[in-house]
Amino acid sequence: MLSSLANPRQAAVQLMNFGLILSTAFMMWKGLSVITDSPSPIVVVLSGSMEPAFQRGDLLFLWNRNVVTETSVGEVVVYSVKGKDIPIVHRIVRKFGKGPEAKLLTKGDNNVSDDTELYASGQDYLVRKDIIGSVFAYIPFVGYVTILLSEHPWLKTVMLGLMGLVVVLQRE
Amino acid sequence: MASTEKITVYNVADLRATTDDALLNYLNSLGLVQSHTLLDTRLALGFSAFLLSAACFAWDYKLGFESTKQYTLVAVALYTLLNGALTYWIMFVERGTIYAGSTKDGKTKIRVISDSKKPASKGEAPAYKLRIEVEDVNTRKTQKIELEKKFSEWFDASGRFVAAPFQTVLAQGIPLVGKLDPKRAVAAAPASGGQGATKDQFAETPGYTAEILDAIASGLGENSTTTGSSANQEAAKKRRK
What we know:
The structure holds 2 protein chains of 2 kinds.
Chain A: H1 2-6, H2 8-36, E1 42-44, E2 59-63, E3 76-79, E4 88-96, E5 103-107, E6 131-139, H3 144-151, H4 154-170
Antiparallel strand pairs in A: 1-2, 2-6, 3-4, 3-6, 4-5
Chain B: H1 12-29, E1 33-34, H2 37-63, H3 69-94, E2 97-102, E3 108-117, E4 127-136, E5 141-150, H4 163-173, H5 175-180, H6 182-187, H7 189-192, H8 199-204, H9 210-218, H10 228-240
Antiparallel strand pairs in B: 1-2, 2-3, 3-4, 4-5
C-alpha cells in the first residue's frame, strides 16, 4: 500500500483501473442506448398496472427503432411525460393516423380507465417521440432489488456496511 | 521502501509485490537504466479511454440523449477500440513485465516478467517465477532465461525480506546481472557453478556464505535499512492503533 503511494506510476495505474471500471460500465450502458436508440434501454416495472403481463420488479428490455413496422396498437411501450421523471409502462390501445405524428392512447392492462389522467395537463394523447421504447424481452423479478433499495433507504446503509465488511475481511 | 516492512508470509500477492519492488531497486542499483515506455503507453491508452467516457458523460448529462446520440455512437466505438488496444497491450506486449531497462551503453536490453506459483503440496512455500529476456541490440539476439525459486529463500519466517540471498539468485541466474555484480555471482559459485541452483543445493551446500548468514540472522539485508529505530516506529504505530 505505502509503496504504491511512493511510486507515482503505480498510483496512476491504480487510479486508472478504478476509473476504467466506472467508465466501462457507463460506456456499456451508452452502447446499449445507441444500439436500441433508447435513452433508457433497461427499465424496472414499478407498479402493478400491467398485471398479469408484468409484475412489480420485472426487468424490461426496450427497443426503440421502427425497422419494419410502425409502433402500433397492442404493443407494450414505455413513455415519459413532460414534467414527470419516472417513465410509465403501458399498452397502446388506440392509434389515429400514421407516421411520427400519429396520435396514440395508452392504458394499463390492470387499470380501469385509459391514461389521459396520467398525461401532462392539456395533453390528450402521445406521439411517437414521447415513447422511449417498446418492450421486446423481460426477466421476471430481478429488478425488485432496486425497488427495495429506493423504498427502504436504510437497506442502502446495510448494503454498504456489508460491502465494507467484505473488503475488510478479504484485505484485497 | 517495501523491503524494510514486515509482510504476512501467507499472502502470496504481498510476497510477490515486495519481491518485485526489491528486484527493481536491485537492478537499478547496478546501473541499469529503467525504461518506463511499456507502463506509460498503458497509462496513455487507459486514461484517454477514461477521458473519452468522461466527456461522453458530460455531454449526455448536459444536452440529453437525443441531440447527442451521433457523438455518443462515435464515442462508444472509439472507447471499444481503445479498450481493445489496452487489453492487447497488457496481454501480448507487457505480458506481466515488471522491469524493462538497458545497460548504460545501450547495447543490451533486459526485460523481467514475474509470476507466482502455488506450491504443489500443502506446507511448501509458494514459488517466484521469473522470465528474463536479455536482448543484444546490435545482433537482435534474445537470450531467454527462466528462474523459479521458493519465496522462503529470501523471506524469513517473520516475513522480513532479506536482500542478500535474493540478489545472489539473480546474479547467478542472469549472466548480465552477474557481470554487473560479480561479488554476488561469485558468492555461491562453488555450490552451483552458475544458474540452476535448486533449493536443495541451497539448503545443504555452502551456498550461503558466512556473510549472508550473518545478514539473515540479524534480519538485515545489504540494501535494507531496517534498524532499531524503524522497529521502534513500528511498535509505536501499533501502540497508536
